[in-house]
Amino acid sequence: MPIRSADFPEADFVRRVLIVVAILAGAAALYMLADIVLLGFGAVLLAVVLRAIAEPLQRMTGIGPKLSLLGAGLGVLTLIVAVGVLFGSQISSQLSELIEKLPAATAALSKSEPFQSVSQLLKGSSVGNLLASALSWGSTIVGSLATLFVVLIAGVYIAVDPQTYRNGLLMLFPKGAQEKVAATLNDAGDALRLWLGAQLIAMVLVGVLSGIGLALIGVPSALALGFIAGVLEFVPIVGPVMAAVPAVLLASTQGWELAAWTIVLFIAVQQIESNIIMPLVSGRAVDLPPAVGLFAVIAIGILFGPLGLLFGYPLAIVLDVAVRRLYVRETLGEDVAIAGKEIEDA
Questions:
Q1: Each residue of 198-249: pLDDT tens digit?
Q2: Cα–Cα distance between 43 and 49 in angstroms, integer?
Q3: Which of 231, 236, 230, 238 has its CA nearest to residue 211?
Q4: Alpha-carbon distance 204 to 200, whole Å?
Q5: Which of 167, 212, 222, 258 is most exposed by smallest CB count within 10 Å?
Q6: Domain range summary for the chain, segments of one domain joined by +
Q7: pTM for the full predicted model
C-alpha cells in the first residue's frame, strides 16, 4: 500500500517549510549576486543587438546563422574602428582634458556655494547617493573596461546559441507553465529589440546634437561632452541629467551665463529626443509611461547600484511585458496591448 503525505501531516508541513526556505535562500542568493545577474542581463542585451543585425543579413544573403552572426559582429567592429579612426584621438584628448578640468571646476564652484563637492551635494537621500555612486563608478576606468569585457564575451556566447540558454531557463518552470513563459520570453525579446534599435539611434543623434550645440555656444571639450551625452542616453530620464552635470560644471568656469545656456541646450535636446526622435524611430511600440520608467530606473538603481541604474529601463520593459501577459492577460483575462506586439498584429 503506497504511503501518502496525508498519512504524515508533519512530513507535509516540513516539505512546505523547506520549499519556503529554498525560495527565500534563492532570492537572497540572487540579491547577493545581483551584479553577476545584471551583467548576464547586459550580455543578453548585446546578444539581442547582434541577432537583430544578423537575422536580416541571413535573409538577404542566404548564408548560415553563424556566418551571419560573424558578419554582424564584424560590421559592428568595423563601424566602431571607423569612428575611432575619425574621431578617437579628438575624443580621447578632450576626455583627458575634461578629467583634468572637472575637479578645478568643482573646486571653483564650491568657493561660492555651501558644499564641498558634487558628491557631497548629491548625498543625503537614496536618489542622491545613487547618482553619487554612479558618478564614482563611471570614473573607475579599469572597472568599467573589465565589466564591458565580460559583457562582450558572454553576449557573443549567448548570441551564437540562444536556444540553449532559453531552454535552460524554461526548464526551471513547471511543464504546465513553460508554454506561457516561452511566449513571454518571445514578447520580451521583441520589445527589447525594438527599444534597443530606437535607443541606439537616439544615442547617436543626441550625442551629435549635444556636441554641435555645445561647440556653437562655446563650451570647452564639446566633442567629449557630446560623446558622454550620447553614451548616457542609454539610461533614459536619468542619463541626460547625469550628462548635463559635467557640461554645466565646465561651462560655469567660463561664466554663469554660459552655464545657463548649457542648461537650456540640454533641455532643448531632450525635448527634440522625446517629441521628435523617439516617436519617429520607435513609434509607441515600446513606451512605458514616463513616471513608471523614472521610478523603475531609480528603484532598480537603489536596489542594485550603478549597474541597476544602467539596466533599469530595459529591465522595466521586461517586467512590463511579463506583468501584461502573465497577469493582466492570462490571469485577469483583460485584453491588453503588449510592447513589441502592436507592430506584428497591425
A1: 888 888 999 999 999 999 998 888 888 898 898 888 887 778 888 888 888 8
A2: 10
A3: 230
A4: 6
A5: 167
A6: 88-143+176-345
A7: 0.75
